Each structure stands twice: as C-alpha cells, then as structure tokens.
Amino acid sequence: MDASQTDCGARTQVIVIGIVSLFVAWCVKRYLSRPRNLPPGPSGLPFFGVLFTIMRSKVGPLELFTSWAEQYGEIYSFAVGPVTIVMVNSLSTIREAFQNPKLNDRPHSRLLEEITGYANAGIALSNGEVWKEQRQFVHSVFRSLGVGKKSYEDTVAREVGQIVDAFEKKGGQPFDPNDLLCSAISNIICSVALGTQYSYDDKEFVEILNLITANLEMSSAGGLIFYTPIPGISKFPGRFRKMKGNIQSIIGFIKRIVEAHRKDIDWDNPRDFIDIYLQRMKESEGKETSFDDDNLVSSIADLFIAGTETTSTSLKWAIMYMMTHQDVQSRVQKELDQVVGRDRFPRLDDRKDLPYTNAVVLECMRLGNVAPFSVPHVAAESTSVKGYHIPKGAVILANLSKVIHDESHWDAPNEFRPERFLGEDGEVLKRDELIVFSTGRRVCLGEQLARMELFLFFTSLLHRYSFKKPDDAPPLCFDGIVGTTRNTHPFQTCAVQRKS
C-alpha cells in the first residue's frame, strides 16, 4: 500500500470518527436537554423520532395513534424529527389544553410559506394580533350578511333546490355524489366570500375542489405534513411536489377573482366578503394593520376550504349510513312526512319537531368522524396539562376520534345507534362528548353554518329520495381516508325518487 492510499484511509477514518462523535454528542445533548416530566409515549429513533414507525405501520395513523392512547393514557407525547408532539385523548384533557391561553397558537407551516410566501396570514393558521384581527373581521362580516342565522336560510335553501334537481337528473341510476355535494356546499360559502355561485358542471370550479380534497388526503393525520420543519420541503418529489402544484392552482384561482373584484367594485355598495375586505384595506391605508393582499387571499382560502370539505364529507357519510341502514332511512322519511308533508321542503322551523331526524344527523356526524384530530395547536410558551410539562414549540393534537368512540361515554360506540341522542321522552339530548367542532377559543368558525347546512341538505334529500346501494356495486368501505380530514372512499349510490 503506497503513502497516498494510507493517507486516504486515515482521512476516511477521521471523517467517520468525527461523524460518529457528532452523532453521539447530539444524542447526549438531546437527552440532557430533554424536558423533564413530558407525557409518556413511544421513544422512536434519534433524529427521526417515530417517523419510520408511522411510515412502516400496517395500520393507518388514526388506528396507530388511538392504540398509543390505549397504551399510554389520556395524554402522551412523541417526536417526529425535532418536533415534540403531544396527543390529548380525553374530553377533560382536550378542554384543559385548548382553554389554556398558552396553547392557542397554530404551528408554523414551512410548506405553505415556501409555496405562497405567507408566513402568518389568514384565519386558520395565523397567530397573535393577525389572528385576532382577521377572526374578528370575519365574525363581523358573517354577522352583517346573516351567515349561520335563520335569515341566511333562503340562500342555503336555493342551493338545496339545485342539488335536489341535479340528483333527479340521475334518474335513479348509480352515480358518485362527491362532485355534486362538494359543488353545492362550496357554492354557499362562495356566495358569501366570492359573491358568485358556480354551475355543477363548471370544469375549473370542480377541478379546484378536487385539488383541495387531494391535498387534504395527502397531508397525513391532522395535516402534519404542512408543519414539517424541513427547509426546501416544497421542492421534494412525490406528494410534496403535487401538493405544491395544487396549492399554486388554488391560490391563482382566488387571486383572479380578487382582481376581478378590484376592477368593478362599487365602494359604496359592497357585495360580498371580498368587497368588504377591499373596503377595509382602503380605510386602513397608512395604518399598522394586517389588512393586506396576503391576508385577503389567505382568509378566502381558509373560508373556501373549511366551508366545503367537512360539510360535504359529512353528507357523504350520511348517505352511506342511510344506504346501509334502510330501516333508519325509512323512519326519518316517515317523521318528515308527518311533520313537513310532501308539498314543501323542510325548513329550520321544523327542526324542533323532528327529534329522530336530528338524532340521525348527530349519529352520522359522530361516526363520520370528519375531523379526527381537529387542527393542530402549538405551545407559544412552556406550560402544563394534567400535571405534565408541555415545552414551548410542542405541537398539540386533539384525538377527537378517541373521545367520540370512548366506551365510557358511548354504549357500543362502533355501532350506528341514533337513539343514543334521544332522551326518555323522545327529546334530543345535547351530548358534550360530541366534540366534532373542537373547543376553546379556536373552535370552528363556521359551526352554526355547518349545522344549518347539514340539517337542510340531509332532510331535503331524504324528503325527496331514498338512497340505495347499486346492485352490482362493491361493499361499502367505512374505514375512511385519513388526512387533515377523514373522507369517504369513493362510492356510488342510487337516489330513487319517492312517490308524492
């Protein structure tokens, strides 16, 4: 062996020793700096935490996280890369965590910032004064437009009429209801935010809705992919590149609508959310506020996505349960016929006289489990929950799925039993354990609108149609596709028109 080979071998050995030494030093430092009294949980590997455990798991993240809840209890923690994640699994723990003012922030999304350039904008993922100002503004616009109140019922009812007619055109033949339901629900928030409604066969509109659904499905449990703190993540191949292209298309769609509003706005007669926002931006010129183009586009995206996906998915689950439980569907229709009759569609005033129907809607929401992990929170400061230390920067996930399947709250929780929401006198019971809209200061902004939509769409569709599984269709799958939301697997239904 000559001298050059010896030197090369020596250099390689030094490099290897250096790398191993750095690795050992990192492990020692991480162990010594690890906060004491963290909630228990799976340890995982250095650098990666439980990342590979999640990736190699033979079950989905929902089942995996719930199995850890069974093992470690109502609160546990684990690491994904450098991020500490705390999972809260009981009703009392979720309430304690989300009512803690130090746990009200949202995690920073490296992926969205790289794609959009927006670091702290909109409603869903903003923090501090930006969040307070934007949320308060949205609340004021919703109040002025009557969103979620009885005065807004006619707007929802018009869309209900359109989708009922669209189902009629299917002639009782098998079809996938996804695009129609997404378009109909999205049109309601579009009328508020964009001042327009789209036809159900508008190709661009349907494509944007499909891109939203695809991103939510690719984002992993609770949308954790959005919060992965890896520089350059938006340039990674595979799902990251797909998500980047989808987000850019959605943002481009919104920006074109905003520009169209700028060109024809009547400053004295604002038509919708965009006009009112542009008006506020004009009034805020020269002032230190968060009313700017970035927050306008981000807020519209938040309303557009949140106002579409969860409610349309809840309706898909409801249709699937009616296809499976024909006896329940018949009983709902009988109650509707007795209270509403056959000459008109149900209205909100009928709700108090339809206890069984309301119980069915609640049970569909429970088992549909559309937002199994809510939206992540992050610790703005170190604090404690149930006596455990929660370090600054830890991401908090609420396992709502565990609560709505908890045997201590629900008898036979995996069975479809609407009667669990009815009292001895037949009145509808308010069950605090049905925590599908989350809790605390960052509870779902559109809860009242969503409840209105679910009731009016569900009752009107069952008033006109009976839903049946096509004879040659495969068995319905109730496992769900878990991402930011829990969506249904694609399915087909037959909407058979009822006789008058």
Care to describe what's here?
The chain is α+β, with helices and mostly antiparallel strands. 49% of the residues lie in helices and 7% in strands. It contains 17 helices and 10 strands. The strands form 4 sheets. A 4-stranded mixed beta sheet has the order 1-2-6-3. It has a two-stranded antiparallel sheet with strand order 4-5. A hairpin with a 2-residue loop joins strand 4 (383-385) and strand 5 (388-390). Helix 5 (110-116) packs across helix 10 (239-264) and helix 8 (178-193) runs antiparallel to helix 13 (309-324). It is globular.
List the helices and strands and how they pair.
Blueprint: H1 3-33, H2 51-56, H3 61-72, E1 75-80, E2 83-88, H4 91-98, H5 110-116, H6 128-145, H7 153-168, H8 178-193, H9 203-218, H10 239-264, H11 273-283, H12 293-306, H13 309-324, H14 326-339, H15 355-368, E3 377-378, E4 383-385, E5 388-390, E6 395-398, H16 400-403, H17 447-464, E7 465-468, E8 481-482, E9 486-487, E10 494-497
Parallel strand pairs: 2-6
Antiparallel strand pairs: 1-2, 3-6, 4-5, 7-10, 8-9
Please report the distance between the alpha carbons of the first and last residues.
96 Å
Strand content: 5-15%
> Order of strands side by side in the largest beta sheet?
1-2-6-3
User: Tell me about the biggest sheet?
Assistant: 4 strands, mixed
Helix-and-strand structural type? alpha+beta
Overall strand count: 10
Q: Determine the number of helices (DSSP H or I, runs of at least 4 residues).
A: 17
Low-confidence parts = none
Helix percent band: 40-55%
Mean pLDDT: 89
